[in-house]
Every structure is written in structure tokens, then in C-alpha cells.
Write a structure and sequence with these properties.
The protein is α/β, with parallel strands linked by helices and 340 residues long. It has helices at 44-62, 100-108, 117-127, 199-210, 227-239, 243-267, 284-298, 326-339, and strands spanning 7-13, 17-24, 34-37, 69-76, 80-81, 84-85, 112-116, 136-142, 146-152, 156-157, 270-274, 316-319. It has a five-stranded mixed β-sheet. Strands 10-9-8-11-12 form a five-stranded mixed β-sheet, with helices on one face. The protein has a two-stranded antiparallel ribbon with strand order 5-6.
Length: 340
């Protein structure tokens, strides 16, 4: 019997909260999910304080000592390479160029693995699907932006040579606005998938539509609320079958499926998981149908069903099931695999 059991922590740095979980050597979660306030804008040292707070809460909730934690998986909401932050994103200025992995490991005395939040969420979705260990998984997650990640068979995330792979939202798509122009993306380019499928895109499209005479009498035009608030309400309207809301989400779903077709043609993952807030909406089945319409419009038939067996799917689509804890779970499972 092992008298010195090992435990492994997953730490997910978000813009508003830090989430943390701990698992044992069998990858079983021990104790509850821990959430503490995120203070990323206040600098990485302040965030380190919060991460240590989370680790202490994890240990207390699991009935173990912090010294029993043999490895930590950490995800950050920014591009990074070999533990060093390459871009500010929504972080404080002092994060950029800093060896976050090395400094945190030295501070807590525990080895650390670090990746970005999209990769972490993909790893989490892979980890909660015990039946899927023999194939790869592509996560595509519409949110404020459009992120995701690719997990290879066996559970290793594909990061690329510099940790910069799978910038899913910045694949170019050939769609244009009513005036024939391509929409600007937050990255500075035009026509990216994220400029069509994201919360920011939703706000832009809603503003364009509400300016049309067709929607002059729409309830969202009868209020002086800012466009961000109107866009937040759009899911409720879609749930009720509102024509305007449905038309916007249908366009987003179709374009998302179209973009996924090119990713599948390149990566052939076998399983595509759709994450983000849409996974929790009541109209998600309809949204998935729109995704499949876009996918069918762009993908070769062989990427949907086998030419040898028309009942065998070559690419399966599923909704995310990991919930808010997916990234933290993915980091804990990865720490277990790397540091056991």
C-alpha cells in the first residue's frame, strides 16, 4: 500500500474567478471545486497570492496537506510559450514576457505545467470522456471570442512549436456584411471566424439588424439600453422563437460549421466538441443543426460518414459536458499524467 499518496491540482485563471480542483493518482476528484476572486489586472504576483489561497482551500477541502500535491496544471487566458506569457490579452502589463510557470513553481515548491485556457478546456472535455482515449478531440468554444484546442490520442494537447497553435477564431471565412465588406476582427485583421461567431460579433450583428426598418417595432428597439445589454437578452428571445434572434444565431451557427469543416479537413479529429455558453441554452439542438448545415456546405461527405459504411460517422459532434470546471479538470488530469 502506498503510504505517501500523490495528489494533483488544476488551476484555471479566468478574468473574474480562479477555479481549482484536485485529483488523486487515479484521476478521481477529491473535495469540491474551489473558486476565488481573480485579480489578474493587478499583476501576476497578486494572482500568485490568489492561487496559493486556492491551493490552501483545495487541500483543506480534500483533507490533505498542500505538501501532498505533487504537481500543478495551470492555464492562462493569453498566448504563451514554454511558460512565458507572449501577449497581454486581458491581463496586467507585468505578465507579458514573464516566466509565469517558472516563478510560480519556485514560489510554491511544486512542478507546474502551463498552457492557455482554450487548450485547458479541450483537455478537460477529453478527461471527462473516459471512452474517448483512443482518438483526438477538437474543442471549439464560442464566447467573448472564439477559442478552442486540439487533444491528440492519449490525452496530450497540441500546442505547436511555440505554444501558439489552434487560434481557431482567426481562421478566415468568405462571408461579408450587407455592404460587401468583411467585418474587422479584434486581432486587427478582417474576415476572421471570430468576427462572425463570438459575443462581440453578436453585438455588431444585432446593431446592424436593429437599424433596419424591418425591425423598427422589435422590443429591443423600444429601449435605450446599451447594445451589450440587448445582446445579452438575445438568447431569451431565441428561446421564445423570436425571428430576429433566430436569424442572428442561425447565421452564426452556419458560419461556425463552415469554419469547422476546414479544421476537420486539416486535422481529422474524429470528435468535435462545441463549448461556450451556447452549450447551456434551451435552443442548442437547433443551433447544432445550423452548425451541421454549415459543415455540410463546406465539408466533403467523407468527413461526415465513411464511404465503406454509410452508418459510421467519421466526425462526431457533441456539446461540451465539462461545465465551468472543464479547464481546471483538464489541468489536474494533465498534471497527474506528467508528474505522477
Amino acid at each position: 500500500m502506498n503510504k505517501n499518496p500523490k495528489f494533483f491540482a488544476g488551476l484555471d485563471i479566468g478574468g473574474s474567478t480562479l477555479k481549482a480542483v484536485v485529483v488523486d493518482a487515479c484521476a478521481k476528484q477529491i473535495g469540491p471545486l474551489v473558486e476565488v476572486r481573480s485579480l489578474v489586472k493587478d499583476g501576476y504576483q497578486t494572482t500568485f497570492d490568489q492561487l496559493e489561497n486556492a491551493l490552501d482551500q483545495l487541500a483543506a477541502g480534500a483533507g490533505i496537506s498542500r505538501s501532498d500535491i505533487a504537481g500543478v496544471g495551470l492555464d492562462v487566458p493569453a498566448p504563451s510559450s514554454d511558460g512565458v506569457i507572449w501577449g497581454r490579452a486581458n491581463l496586467g502589463d507585468d505578465w507579458v514576457g514573464t516566466d509565469i510557470r517558472g516563478q510560480l513553481s519556485a514560489r510554491i515548491g511544486i512542478p507546474v505545467f502551463m498552457t492557455n485556457d482554450g487548450n485547458a478546456a479541450a483537455l478537460g472535455e477529453y478527461a471527462v470522456r473516459e471512452y474517448h482515449t483512443a482518438r483526438s478531440l477538437l474543442l471549439v468554444a464560442p464566447g467573448t471570442g472564439l477559442g478552442g484546442g486540439l487533444v491528440l490520442p492519449g490525452g496530450r494537447v497540441y500546442e505547436g512549436a511555440n505554444g501558439l497553435a489552434l487560434e481557431i477564431g482567426h481562421i478566415s471565412v468568405p462571408f461579408r456584411e450587407d455592404d460587401g465588406e468583411q467585418p474587422a476582427c479584434s486581432c486587427g485583421l478582417k474576415g476572421c471566424a471570430e468576427s462572425w461567431v463570438s459575443l462581440m460579433a453578436l453585438r455588431r450583428r444585432l446593431g446592424i439588424e436593429l437599424a433596419k426598418p424591418r425591425w423598427a417595432a422589435h422590443p429591443l428597439n423600444q429601449t435605450d439600453a446599451p447594445i451589450a445589454e440587448k445582446a445579452f437578452r438575445l438568447r431569451d428571445f431565441a428561446t421564445d422563437g423570436d425571428e430576429l434572434a433566430i436569424s442572428i444565431f442561425k447565421q452564426q451557427g452556419f458560419i461556425l460549421g463552415y469554419a469547422i469543416a476546414d479544421m476537420v479537413r486539416t486535422l481529422d479529429p474524429g470528435l468535435v466538441v462545441i463549448g461556450g455558453g451556447l452549450a447551456e441554452t434551451t435552443f442548442r439542438d437547433q443551433y447544432m443543426e445550423w452548425i451541421m448545415e454549415g459543415f455540410a456546405d463546406r465539408a466533403w461527405p467523407v468527413y461526415r460518414y465513411s464511404p465503406l459504411d454509410s452508418t459510421k460517422e467519421t466526425t462526431r459532434f457533441e456539446w461540451a459536458i465539462g461545465g465551468d470546471a472543464a479547464a481546471a479538470i483538464g489541468m489536474a488530469y494533465t498534471a497527474r499524467d506528467l508528474f505522477q
